[in-house]
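User: Just a sanity check before I run the rest of the batch. Below are the structure tokens for the first item. I only need the designed sequence back.
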């Protein structure tokens, strides 16, 4: 498997050619227009690699993928499952990469989210779950004065979300925070349908020293927020806590792993400095 060997390729205008290509190398096929570059790359090597891969799948999967015709070639050795990118003019979109164009990136994001084991970026230890009582203790230790405990309901999702706010009012929540602004649930609010929004239910406003109320509010917020809560202090600083993933050393909280966390095109996974572009323009 150190070489890719093609023998007797006769597809289209290829004249019974044989060629040996090294594996794990970046190879460029050049030549005059109509000399058979695309025929060799796409209609022979790629077509045979794709055909062999599809044949290895179940009959159920094959009916969705479609089997390519066998190319006119004597033999091809050392061939792996192949991927081809459509020949077209290059996109000027700075967010397009080989991974996004080939859609391999979608599978990688899913793989990391499902089998990845999160570790604290500061201490390198495995992140573990914690109880509402442990979170309440950390809230009291990290906060001073009056705090507002919020339960995340909508996180970076498009839509007007009118019914969500109405339903929260029916559940007994008098206030919600919509895009960093606290409003009453009986107020009329208009949100852009095609814009990303955050909505959190205001569970309680309490003193950080009031242990019983902090514990009660923490349990309610974690239950309504799906294991997440946000603590907002009087200065506007907010800290997120999670019952699912927390560093046992420093207490840094993380959400449960999701594919969008590993996407540089999503606000959840993009670098906060460059917004996922990989570069910054400066004067």
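Assistant: Here's the designed sequence for the first item:
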């Amino acid at each position: 498997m150190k070489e890719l060997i093609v023998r007797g390729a006769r597809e289209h205008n290829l004249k019974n050619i044989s060629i040996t290509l090294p594996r794990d190398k970046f190879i460029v096929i050049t030549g005059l227009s109509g000399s058979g570059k695309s025929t060799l790359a796409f209609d022979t090597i790629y077509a045979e690699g794709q055909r062999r891969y599809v044949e290895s799948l179940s009959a159920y999967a094959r009916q969705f993928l479609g089997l390519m015709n066998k190319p006119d070639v004597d033999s091809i050795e050392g061939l792996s499952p192949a991927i081809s990118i459509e020949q077209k003019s290059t996109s000027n979109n700075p967010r397009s990469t080989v991974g996004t164009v080939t859609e391999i990136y979608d599978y990688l994001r899913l793989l990391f989210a499902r089998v990845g084991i999160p570790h604290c970026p500061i201490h390198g230890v495995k992140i573990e779950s914690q109880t509402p009582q442990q979170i309440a203790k950390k809230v009291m230790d990290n906060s001073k004065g009056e705090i507002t405990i919020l339960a995340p309901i909508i996180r970076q999702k498009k839509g007007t979300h009118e019914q969500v706010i109405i339903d929260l009012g029916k559940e007994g929540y008098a206030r919600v925070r919509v895009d960093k602004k606290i409003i009453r649930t009986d107020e009329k609010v208009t949100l852009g349908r095609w814009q990303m929004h955050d909505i959190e239910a205001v569970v309680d406003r309490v003193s950080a020293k009031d242990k019983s109320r902090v514990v009660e509010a923490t349990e309610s917020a974690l239950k309504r927020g799906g294991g997440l809560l946000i603590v907002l202090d009087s200065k506007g600083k907010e800290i997120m806590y999670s019952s699912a993933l927390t560093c046992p050393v420093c207490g840094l909280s993380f959400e449960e792993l999701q594919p969008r966390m590993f996407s540089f095109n999503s606000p959840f996974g993009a670098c906060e400095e460059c917004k996922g572009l990989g570069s910054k323009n400066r004067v």
